[in-house]
Amino acid sequence: MSTFTRRATLGLLGATLATPFIVRSARAGTAINVGAMRLASHAPSYIAYERGYFTEAGLDVNFDYFEAAQPMAVAIASGDTGYAMTAISGGLISLAEKGVAKVIGGALSEEQGIPGQKILVSNAAYEAGVTEPSKLDGKSWGITQAGSSFHYMGSKIAAREGIELRFKPLQKTGAVIGAIKSGQIDGWSIVPNLAATLADAGAVQIIGEVANYIPDYQVTTVFTSATNAEKEEAQTKAYLQALARGTADYNAALVDETTDAAEKEALVKLVASYVYPDRPIEEASASILAGAMRINADMALNKTSVMDQLEWFKAGDLVKDSITYETLVDDRYVDILS
């Protein structure tokens, strides 16, 4: 485990899976904590857990739940959490620069022809005339923290439209949801299942698609501590390949729709039990089906997108200019998409 404590890591923030077969961990029954969020994009973790793929890989998994990317990065770097999937953030990049975190794969992606992340506005903003992204000029945009994926998406949209946005950090996804529902912020972008849930409830309006502004965006990555990447290679490969099995099930049933109806229904119920545990299955199913985005097969990584994100962080002075792709990514685990 990393020698960095959670407190020390917080201080720092102030500043190829070519085979489909499971690689077993060297220590059967190895206990690991996996970071998760109650989003459909984390479905592969839940599928791998419920269908025994982690167990078959010799891993005893416990989930640590988070509400934003940066706290997850802190927990990974400090060793409190072993592995996770979430967006690249300024915090994650800075921790990689300090030698305590590494990206080891890709996950959620924008793909042409598949529903992706939506651009939302509050009802108040929509009624005031913000009916398309170009009309967001001078408006407020919700983010969790500076350097989050929400910050990146908002900046790319603003640059493409030639407008300015006022970014409002609210720390947690739940707080951003509350703010856009109440009209305290004007705009936001989020995965389609959550966007559909809010829009169907009449709480927000959908005015655009993130994919039109950031095509082939590598939305989330798989990452771990530098210690795990360097010293626990068998365990790390076992985790990745179990996760890839969960991804294959998810893509087949909910994205490519190449399975039978029974498998599709089973996957929807499984995912809903984690993402929407308090909602009737009929409501939860509609949101999950409406928001199934591609998750990269074999946890492959879109290097081009990662490089674009790195350049954006550097241009905004959110991370050091000396940081390279190799600083962030451990290529021994990674299949490259492009």
List the helices and strands and how they pair.
Elements: H1 6-14, E1 30-36, H2 43-50, H3 53-56, E2 59-65, H4 69-78, E3 83-86, H5 90-97, E4 101-106, E5 118-122, H6 123-127, E6 139-143, H7 149-161, E7 165-169, H8 173-182, E8 187-190, H9 192-200, E9 204-209, E10 221-225, H10 226-231, H11 233-255, H12 261-275, H13 281-290, H14 303-315, H15 325-328
Parallel strand pairs: 1-2, 1-3, 6-7
Antiparallel strand pairs: 3-10, 4-10, 5-8, 5-9
Helix pairs in contact: 1-4, 2-11, 2-12, 4-5, 9-13, 11-12, 12-13
Describe the protein in words.
- This protein is an alpha/beta fold and 338 residues long.
- The protein folds into two domains: 6-109 and 218-333, D-Maltodextrin-Binding Protein, domain 2 (3-Layer(aba) Sandwich); 118-212, 3-Layer(aba) Sandwich (D-Maltodextrin-Binding Protein, domain 2).
- It is 43% helix and 16% strand.
- The protein is built from 15 helices and ten strands.
- The strands form three sheets. The protein has a five-stranded mixed β-sheet, with helices on both faces.
- It starts with 5 loop residues before the first helix and ends in a 10-residue tail after the last helix.
